[in-house]
User: Which sequence fits this backbone?
């Protein structure tokens, strides 16, 4: 199977002030991401508040992203949910509209306790879109599925033909690398934490999915470019800058809340978050803006 | 607001062998529960695999339970989900069909971290069915919402007019009692662990919601009856028996899996569980049956 | 083996202002506890900051409590530590000085992960004082040893002859009762949470070890007395009062910090806590005093 | 303050078959470590079962390591314990015998909950050896002290003059790097996970403390050497090999148990572990040997 090279973006879901999904900005959003070096999008995931959308909204968003995607721009649709039948429906739809691939995280409820449970879950979804690559999205801090990923690979190998790899959003570069080394790189291991792209590159990483790429994609893709041309100093500087940006959003409830608001600050308002997220106040927004100015963010951020 | 006296049952969702929801057994199910002393049902909750059902399935089940409920038999509809808009839709539907009340647990994703997030979540749902009592369903072991319930009561008091109380499925009888004592019993605190009904009665508990009441309701309601007539010995024996039954289901992946299979053993097959639950094998079923026979379960269980 | 009836107190360790252990108050302390209905002491445990004492200090304290104990007043010496050889030394010393029994919690480091590890740990300590009853002190919230206690009983039964029972400081009254029922009450299960004595009595509890008994022992022993004479209303009122007292100490870093300072407020200053505990400020002490006055504590507390 | 370059080893504590500490092998041990590229030792830490030793044993070991250390070979004495007074005693002793530095992890009991508690703990120990650099040993998976290390640096900066840095044994390379960047590298951040040395080097890491360096030190120091001369392929191969070795010990209860037994397999028997560790059986040892042979370990391991 084709492996992803470069960075895929996990977009936010544009919403109106009343919280309705607003597909209008998607074409400009897709164009901006492509312009700033991103290779595609992983939609309706955690950054996109996918679990908080109705199935109909998720379907609408998938269609709009497909329409808006420039040539060669990959659209991967996250179809994970607590209800496997809903996930199957979303996976079939993704295949129908010609998405590049699908992905699913473990359901947060019931909490997954065994590899066999997770494998059965992935198997059912993957089988609903057998022509598309399926990525498991490993983000245990969000859903409690603290299971060993090397064991998942063993469980799905030979059982799920279109299992493509893992979006790995966890701190263990050791486990990540062991997954990479499984059968000499059989599976596509996508790095999933923007704060450690450079360390991960030493292990041979070639692709990843980012959340802060929405507004800081030039610098993050620049880490990989600098590394590939042997310019460690530039790569390190850009990675340190990326961490400085992440330091700021950590002060404002993380990427889903703080990061979505940064989009407004760079001139592309994507609206509020859904409850139970607490939207940022105007004072918080002003304070965050000052923190970002202090690190020179607005000179280096994504451009339209 | 009226407080619930006695025990409400959290029913399993009947399914066909292919996993489709099967409403056919519901009338007999409701009649059986009423006959064995239960005062109502809390449907589409954790025992009912509510999170694993589509919204349409949840709506169908609510309607069928309403049709089947005998006079005075309370139907409380669990409407919690990761998607607040879906929960609102389900709450409105519950009100339309005349349900007695609604309930919602905290969403497992995103994980609730603050009382304010939880209060906003409850507020939005409760406001969608303002004529119905709203119960918060506290089950942190399942969804990670380990928040202090006394703080939740303070947060909703004066803010959510139809906040009725809490289905409290957690081990702290101390916190449970502090909630009971809040403003001299302003809120209806429903005990939610069948293994400790008797200890809870000492604190003044009058109502609860059970999961093992599906098949062991006579004994569990018998605990309360014995206590109320001052017969501690009988109450204790029945509580010990109830624990013995729970010991068995703990050997078979708990009530959702093991308990649902007990229904088949008492002559009322409700079908399989949904993935990611692992259904019991025939060997497991036979072993469980032997364990239940050893404690004399089939003489004391619910009767049709 | 003899089972403990009534409540044992877990005393604080008296210290001078400079943090040195101060044995001087121990005779008066022992007399006060006996006068207020306590049946003995469990020394050098968590309330006594046992892990934060040197072995020499623990030995000194054991000797002083033995000297001060009135006739029939049980002295149980907690000898748990991270260093098993130190625990063995303390156990032998306890036997030499004629202590009534010994106890040990699981070592917090290395974190116990298996019943076999815990059984070997208990076995080695118990064998160092073979004539004394040995109590395992289950307090997983403090040391991370979240292991099933019914499995521990099975593992030690027939292997540790002087294993007497468990001081059970955890919320699960279900597991506690299952331990009680093991082989028809073979082991002495001591209730270990002052906030739920009354609920526990319904299961047949006859003894316990308290931490708030240091200052609220009259009310806590009163719960048992009222229950035994069939006066549920009084028992409930006293249990609710005990919870109200615990509500206060929870505002001041719990019993080890807040409770130790209450001793000063009732006229028996036991000095500071050791680092890393943060001692209460004067302002905090004054605020705590007001909270205690508001619930009428000083009329009902232990008397000298 | 001087920063550590290269790798320091965390040695196992040699024991006799009866579990007594056995200082006899220490001179040969020190010479072997120096010969294989290690720059010093961090003794009586987690690999050394420090918490499971009596204070007298810890003192004896410190003296023996000081006597055995070759010129320029750093001896850092871990003095952390649950009892601060014991830690102070050990710190003073380390200073008296001329140790290069001291270190302490957070006490596992009582569990540290606040930075202020941890800062007071470190301050007291560091003040007992004011001429020596003090390293905080961050290993939250072992002691539950999951606190932000950037906050610790802020808390100790200007308060603990001899606070040298942190032995960072946790997965977050992001937090590790943020600590490195604090005040342009004011503190010495020692990498503490042998499985991710190479990724960490991209951030500027120059020193670390290893546990598998006891038997795999040539390869681990080789990672740094290869990186420094720009040979990424060799560095990556050696890091992958180091992970393969770690994969093996993870099958045998980790480095403290499995790694200590590897010492026997390379001809340097250091005896058993202390309870509650479960020593490896002969069968386990044989199986582990086969796994190590399969990866060619015995050709690449440390040599005497």
Assistant:
């Amino acid at each position: 199977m084709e492996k992803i090279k470069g960075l895929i973006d996990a977009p936010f879901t544009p919403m109106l002030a009343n919280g309705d999904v607003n597909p209008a900005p998607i074409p400009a959003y897709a164009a901006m991401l492509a312009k700033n070096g991103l290779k595609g999008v992983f939609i309706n995931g955690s950054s996109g508040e996918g679990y908080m959308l109705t199935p109909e909204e998720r379907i609408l968003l998938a269609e709009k992203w497909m329409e808006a995607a420039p040539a060669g721009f990959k659209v991967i649709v996250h179809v994970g949910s607590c209800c496997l039948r809903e996930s199957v429906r979303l996976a079939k739809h993704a295949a129908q509209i010609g998405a590049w691939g699908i992905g699913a995280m473990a359901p947060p409820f019931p909490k997954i306790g065994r590899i066999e449970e997770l494998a059965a879950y992935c198997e059912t979804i993957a089988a609903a879109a057998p022509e598309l690559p399926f990525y498991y999205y490993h983000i245990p801090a969000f859903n409690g599925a603290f299971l060993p990923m090397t064991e998942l690979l063993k469980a799905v190998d030979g059982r799920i033909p279109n299992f493509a790899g893992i979006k790995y959003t966890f701190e263990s570069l050791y486990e990540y690398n062991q997954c990479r080394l499984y059968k000499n790189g059989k599976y596509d291991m996508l790095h999933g934490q923007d704060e450690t792209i450079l360390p991960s590159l030493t292990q041979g990483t070639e692709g990843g999915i980012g959340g802060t790429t929405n507004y800081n994609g030039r610098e993050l893709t620049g880490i990989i470019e600098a590394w590939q041309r042997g310019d460690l100093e530039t790569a390190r500087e850009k990675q340190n800058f990326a961490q400085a940006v992440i330091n700021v959003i950590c002060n404002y409830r993380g990427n889903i809340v703080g990061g979505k608001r940064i989009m407004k600050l760079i001139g592309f308002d994507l609206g509020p978050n859904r409850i139970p997220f607490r939207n940022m106040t105007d004072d918080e927004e002003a304070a965050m803006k000052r923190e970002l100015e202090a690190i020179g963010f607005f000179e280096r951020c994504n451009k339209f």
Observations:
- Chain A has a mean pLDDT of 98.
- The longest strand of chain A covers residues 163-168.
- Residues 232-250 of chain A form the longest helix (19 residues).
